[in-house]
Every structure is written in C-alpha cells, then in structure tokens.
TrEMBL record:
This is 7-carboxy-7-deazaguanine synthase. It comes from Uliginosibacterium aquaticum. HAMAP family: QueE. It catalyses: 6-carboxy-5,6,7,8-tetrahydropterin + H(+) = 7-carboxy-7-carbaguanine + NH4(+). [4Fe-4S] cluster binds at C36, C40, C43. Catalyzes the complex heterocyclic radical-mediated conversion of 6-carboxy-5,6,7,8-tetrahydropterin (CPH4) to 7-carboxy-7-deazaguanine (CDG), a step common to the biosynthetic pathways of all 7-deazapurine-containing compounds. Residues 23-213 form the Radical SAM core domain. The lineage of its organism: Bacteria, Pseudomonadati, Pseudomonadota, Betaproteobacteria, Rhodocyclales.
Length: 217
C-alpha cells in the first residue's frame, strides 16, 4: 500500500516583503504552519498557536507556485513541531526556490535539508522560555544560517553578549538582534551594540513598520 501523501496544518500562506533577516525587503511567499510548544511573552503570532487547516503537500506547493516568487519562508508558530515540515522544506528546495526556515531553536534542526537557510532563535531570559533553548542545535549552524535574539532589556542584551562569545557565533554566521516592540527603545539597543562594537546586525520588523500589526503581511 502506498504511503499517505504528507499533510500539514497551515495557518496561512501569503505573498509579502520579507520583514526580517538578511533577506529583508525581498518579495517572499510565507507558509505559516500552525502550532508551537513555546509561549514567549512577547510573541506576535499567537493566532498561529491553534486553528489552521489541514492541507496536502501538493496543494501547498501549487499555491506557493501561483505567486511567482523566488523566495519562500516557512514559519510559524514553530514549523518543526509538525514532522512533515521536513518534507515540505525539501520539496520547496527541489522545486527551485530559495528557502528559509524560521524556527525557535527549541526543536532539533539536524534533519533540515542542507539547502535551507535556517533563521534560528536563541531565547533570552526575557522571553520566559530561555530553558527551551536546544543548545545542540548550534552544532548544525553553518555560514548560510542566521541566529536571531529578541532583546527585551539590558539584561537580555548582556546575556546575549555572553552567549555569542561562549559559542563564537559572530564568526560562524550572521547574528540578528531585535528589540521587543513597545518594550525596548531601538535607540537603546543600537547604543549598546555600538558601545560594545558587537559584530551583529540590528533589525526592526519592517513589515510591521509598513503595515502595522495584522496578519497576512
């Protein structure tokens, strides 16, 4: 008997400009998977924790193709919480897309297709989920990947500095630092980075600057 076709629970698929990472500004198709085992206190996609619709892999690929974009970002929630996400990532790569994966860093990334650019969070203490960091994931980070830390205050920033130094991360990949919107003044984060000559890239969420807080952007 043939294996059942992969199905994933999808929160939304949409075409927008990438608002974060080194791909910022690029027209991108976003495939947002439903579900996440974490509950970061500053999460801006809580609507993706539940709901969504089960969809066949071929149906997802067909919708992505309809937008005619080169870049695809698989995100969540936490996309790796659904095992068929690995199959989706490989299928997107096979179809010729430039694929990125936004992941919390709490789930194993070792089986992610090597062609995918992993944008992996490290959860600082201010997230409320620092204990969920799966540190073994750092062994699977390459130069094509990126580490992201969302910073809520100066304590988070100092924690980040220590982690980056301990694991020599800024020499291994691009490191992205973001302020928690509405909690940390971006000027403060910028000042700390410049003061310490930290070899990171500061980023703001461009999509929220353009469109505000709404889905589908």
């Amino acid at each position: 008997m043939a294996a059942a076709a992969p199905r994933l629970r999808i929160s939304e698929i949409f075409h927008s400009l990438q608002g974060e990472s080194t791909r910022v500004g690029l027209p991108t198709v976003f495939v947002r998977l439903t579900g996440c085992p974490l509950r970061c206190v500053w999460c801006d996609t809580e609507y993706a924790f539940t709901g969504g619709k089960m969809r066949e892999l071929e149906d997802i690929l067909a919708e992505v193709a309809g937008y005619g974009a080169r870049h695809v970002c698989v995100t969540g929630g936490e996309p790796l919480a659904q095992k068929p996400c690995l199959t989706l990532l490989t299928a997107l790569c096979d179809a010729g897309y430039s694929v990125s994966l936004e992941t919390s860093g709490a789930l194993d990334v070792s089986e992610v297709d090597a062609r995918v650019s992993k944008i992996m969070d490290l959860k600082a203490p201010g997230s409320g989920e620092v204990d969920k960091n799966l540190w073994s994931n750092l062994a699977h980070i390459t130069a094509q990947d990126e580490i992201k830390v969302v910073v809520a205050d100066e304590a988070d920033y100092q924690w980040t500095r220590a982690v980056l130094a301990e694991h020599n991360l800024t020499s291994r990949c691009t490191v992205l630092l973001s302020p928690v919107q509405g909690k940390l003044d971006p000027q403060d984060l910028a000042a700390w980075i410049l003061r310490d000559r930290l070899a990171v890239r500061m980023q703001l969420q461009m999509h929220r600057i353009i469109w505000g807080e709404r889905t589908g952007v």
